[in-house]
Amino acid sequence: MTDITRLTAAEIADRLAAQEISSVEATQAHLDRIAAVDGDVHAFLHVDAEGALAAAREADERRARGDHVGALTGVPIAVKDVVATQGQPTTAGSRMLEGWVPPYDATLVTRLRAAGMPILGKTNMDEFAMGSSTEHSAYGPSHNPWDLERTPGGSGGGSSAAVAAFEAPLAIGTDTGGSIRQPAAVTGTVGAKPTYGGVSRYGLIALASSLDQAGPCTRSVLDAALLHEVIGGHDPMDSTSIEAPVPPVVEAARRADVTGMRIGIVKEISGEGFQPGVQRRFEESVQLLVDRGAEVVEVSCPTFSQGLAAYYLILPSEASSNLAKFDAMRYGLRVGPQGVESPSAEQVMAASRDAGFGDEVKRRIILGTYALSSGYYDAYYGQAQKVRTLIARDFAAAFEKADVLVSPTAPTTAFRLGEKIDDPMAMYLNDIATIPANLAGVPGLSLPSGVADEDGLPTGFQVLAPATQDHLMYGVGAALEAALLEKWGGPVLAKAPELTAKETVR
Amino acid sequence: MSVTTADAVLPYDEALATYDPVMGLEVHVELGTATKMFCGCSTTFGADPNTQTCPVCLGLPGALPVVNATAVESAVRIGLALNCQIAQWCRFARKNYFYPDMPKNFQTSQYDEPIAFEGYLDVDLDDGSTFRVEIERAHMEEDTGKSLHVGGSTGRIHGAEYSLVDYNRAGIPLIEIVTKPILGAGERAPEVARAYVSALRDLLKALDVSDVKMEQGSMRCDANVSLKPRGAEKLGTRTETKNVNSLRSVERAVRYEICRHAAVLNGGGSILQETRHWHEDTGATTSGRPKSDADDYRYFPEPDLVPVAPAHELVERLRGTLPEPPAERRKRLQAAWGYSDLEMRDVMNAGAVGIIEETVAAGASPAAARKWWTGELARRANAEGKSVSDFNVTPAYVAELDGLVGSGRLNDSMARQVLDGVIAGEGSPTAVADARGLELVQDDGALEAAVDQVIAANPDVAQKVRDGKVQAVGALIGQVMKAMKGQADAGKARELLLQRLT
Q1: Each residue of A162-206: pLDDT tens digit?
Q2: Over chain B (502 residues), what is each successive 10-residue block's mean pLDDT?
Q3: CB-based contact, A330 to chain B, within 8 Å
Q4: Binary contact (A325, B163; C-beta < 8 A)
Q5: Count of structural domains within chain A
Q6: What is the CATH number of the domain that holds B478?
Q7: Which of A197, A245, A268, B42 has the fewest CB within 10 Å, making it most exposed?
Q8: Are residues B92 and B173 in the same domain?
Q9: Does one domain contain both B301 and B380?
Q10: In the prediction, which pLDDT does A1 show?
Q11: Chain A within 8 Å of B58 (Cβ-Cβ)?
């Protein structure tokens, strides 16, 4: 019998539909895998075996009764810990929310539950999604299944590691500047950031409201499209949510056709500054698309080089305000100031925020508070918004010439844990190629393009599409994926080392 | 009780002899929408603390706001009624500051893009003249929670042992209406302030967008006051007196601040820019917290909300729903009812325009309607410390009572007895008159007999009347009425007496 955990979500769904396996079996298999390897990987902050199995039983009963089932009914999933799950702890990787159990579900969680998808648990992340390595998690970093000494990316490294380590066939990530796509790139998995407004943000603990977007973390492009369809679509609880049906992403992923499509290589986000092995796999992938009938054009988006600077003003500004609610008054960590008898509310707020937030969070709150201050607003936040407009114009011009844009997802393969922790700028540069999509609200997808020759670690290929045209990136991604599978004779994750199962009981 | 040293104040006339007052009035109005500004929670006043809350208005992690469309419509209607321009496109902004009664530690408000701007309101003053108050803006925002500071002597946060917060109020839709600096009111500044708030209250009531109850806090006024030497161009430093919660207090607080500022300035001092607290009991303000223009709320556009863009068609449709402006309505009704200016002002001050209109519509004469509501009923209400609306007397009942008098069934004193019965809950005026057997005697025979009897019994008085002192007949009428036990038509008695004596 095949190992269920090695199957893609679509394959599990097929076997569930054929009643070859049950959802309880699929869920249990993943729970067992988590028990075996997560001591090393540390993808999860919280595992909800009981809840997942109950949902699995319910999914099996639904199917047995002949009730309506969706494409992914019964397929288990992991959810990034920044997403509110009723009855399950939600910490956003912060001490500030240690032990907080939301009294409500995020809209996307409501949709997962309605679709009958058992939620295995909550995945690790950089605190409040600030980081590119999970090293800023208050609960310790996650480890890359390709090399446990390396990062699985961030902020959603827990989700990418869980999927790459076969602890979950699917996971939810959130992407504010690349937190779905960069982890996907460095773990040899697939990650998609839908168009801004394509998936409801209701229940996502906000980092930067105008940039945040939830999306799928998977091992295949089709799986990502299937999950996108479940969680996407208009939500009246999120006024920035798009009032339109989900684009035909599944259809595009199944068709995997690039014939006659114009693929635009963005001059500014490839080549120089990118690791040679990353660049080489990128160029080969472009050639594979050409072989399949696509046409290549080079486009220039000169303002993309300003993206990182604009991003690191807009994000901290919004974050400084979004994180103000963590003040120890109503929920979360509360500590009294040292040596103060009957402290004031203000003193408790200050002491709690000092104790509850990590360094990176404090750094960004201070940056954002400064950038929004009167007298500085125009020079910082105001200018950054102008850059944002220019980036959107560059995208619009580029999409005149090309149907989709492509680039390497991240400049390097997975770096070593500890390597960049004391160098915020080096850490920030990981997102150089992914940030423009968030600033402009366009969708982006990362899929594996192979492994770099120099270190044998996975490399990522990014496809960007015009807003609301998410299906285009799925079509191109699926075509490239098919070509690569043919070339390699199997998925890139087959090249990853086997993790040794631990005897320890978690 | 507040423990403060009293500030020096200058007599009002002396203050005005040297200085011109300048005011800026900020009025917060809680909209009467069924749900809150950004979530579906109820807005009902007086519910148990924290029972009308949800993840959104509690600011729980992950929750998002959605704009209440009805609140936007109310804001547009208020803007239109204040002769404002309506923004074709505007955004909410975050006003960032930390306070325990603010769940998100920012207030979702509007900053440089208010929904309505550049308007005016004409307000009637006591002498019948009109003063135009220019409106700078009206913008939408959410209310904060309500803090209750327990254990201190002042009821304020400083010195309190602990504080309780009720988030039922958090997220209630507010409209803040801000005037431009009100210049040129001179000695009438306090009156203008009161008249403005009063006119605004009438307008909002007519729009039916708020219950505008100042005592419940659904309408709150902050009064900015500054003085400049008479004739000077440059404005002085202002103080902002917060939460002045009655019309009378608005007038008193402005007057007090004028006198206090003048004393400080005359003494060579300078005004500290600060908020002030108004104390109803002492009739004085005390220092609050310093407030400078450098207060940095780090405003930025609210990224969780899409811009509000009221379509032209919507604005025009809402314009069509505006009620007649209170001032025009007043003029129209005064003409229709034939009231003198003085009578109309009494009616207005009694807040009885609406109820008189209903009473006239129910068939009463305008004069009778005014007499009952601002006379007999107002007198009774005052005596009992109530409002006329506390009595179970409806406009229809008053019209019915007026009809009973007009048809000759009741005289005035009987009508007052009937009113007693109506107020006591004995039913309609007709029912009360029936039950109490109150009816003028229509039998002329009995009246004539009584007249003859009274003339015979009072020959001296009768002679005076015969001699031409007609006013003496009053004494005889009184005797006749007494003989008839009050149930006679006094007019008819007079008529018969004069017939016989002249």
Answers
A1: 999 999 999 999 999 999 999 999 999 999 999 999 999 999 999
A2: 67 95 97 97 94 97 98 98 97 95 96 97 88 98 92 72 92 98 95 96 93 90 96 93 91 97 95 92 88 79 97 96 87 93 85 90 93 90 81 90 88 88 90 86 79 89 87 87 82 86 82
A3: yes
A4: no
A5: 1
A6: 1.10.10
A7: A245
A8: yes
A9: no
A10: 54
A11: yes
CB within 8 Å: B303 and A318: yes
Q: How many CB atoms lie within 10 A of CB A293?
A: 12
One-letter amino acid at A342 equals S
| B65 interaction partners in chain A (CB closer than 8 Å) | 239
- B100, B275, B84: which is closest to B175 by C-alpha? B84
Number of residues written out for chain B: 502
**Alpha-carbon dihedral of residues B158, B162, B168, B174, nearest 10 degrees?**
10
**Angle A191-A196-A197 (CA atoms, 0-180°, nearest 5)?**
115
C-alpha–C-alpha distance, residues A153 and A457, integer Å: 13
How far separated are the first and last CA of chain A, in Å rounded?
26
* Domain boundaries, position B216: 12-306
Please name the residue of chain B whose CA is at the shortest distance from the CA of residue A238.
B64
pLDDT of residue A271: 85
- Write down the mean pLDDT value for chain A: 96
Statement to judge: residues B428 and B476 lie in one domain: no
The confidence band for A492, taking pLDDT boundaries of 50, 70 and 90, is very high
Test the B interface: residue of A96, A235, A327, A361 with most B CBs within 10 Å: A327
Give the CATH number for residue A285.
Answer: 3.90.1300.10
**Is B34 a domain residue?**
yes
CA-to-CA distance for B157 and B217, rounded, in angstroms?
19
User: What confidence score (pLDDT) does residue B1 get?
Assistant: 38
Question: Any idea which residues of A carry the catalytic annotation?
Answer: 80, 155, 179
Q: How confident is the model at residue A437 (pLDDT cuts 50, 70, 90)?
A: very high
A360-375 tens-digit pLDDT: 999 999 999 999 998 8
Q: Chain B partners of A238 at a C-beta cutoff of 8 Å?
A: 64, 66
Task: Check if A243 contacts B (Cβ < 8 Å).
Answer: no
Is the Cβ pair A324, B96 closer than 8 Å?
A: yes
Whether chain A has a CB inside 8 Å of the CB on B293: the answer is: no
CB contact under 8 A, A325 and B59: yes
Q: So what's the ipTM on this one?
A: 0.95
| Per-residue confidence (pLDDT) for residue B3, from 0 to 100 | 44
What pairing do the DSSP bridges indicate for beta strands B19-30 and B173-179?
antiparallel
Judging contacts by C-beta atoms under 8 Å, the chain B residues touching residue A83 are 62
Q: In this structure, is residue B321 part of a structural domain?
A: no
Record the tokens describing residue A164, joined without a space: 């790459």
Residue B299 with chain A: CB contacts under 8 Å:
372
**Residue A355: inside a domain, yes or no?**
no
B138 and B200 belong to one structural domain? yes
A83 and chain B in contact, CB less than 8 A? yes
Tokens representing residue A245 in the block: 């049906």
Q: How far is CA B130 from the centre of its chain?
A: 18
Q: Count interface pairs A-B at CB distance under 8 A.
A: 100
Q: Which domain holds residue A81?
A: 4-304+389-495
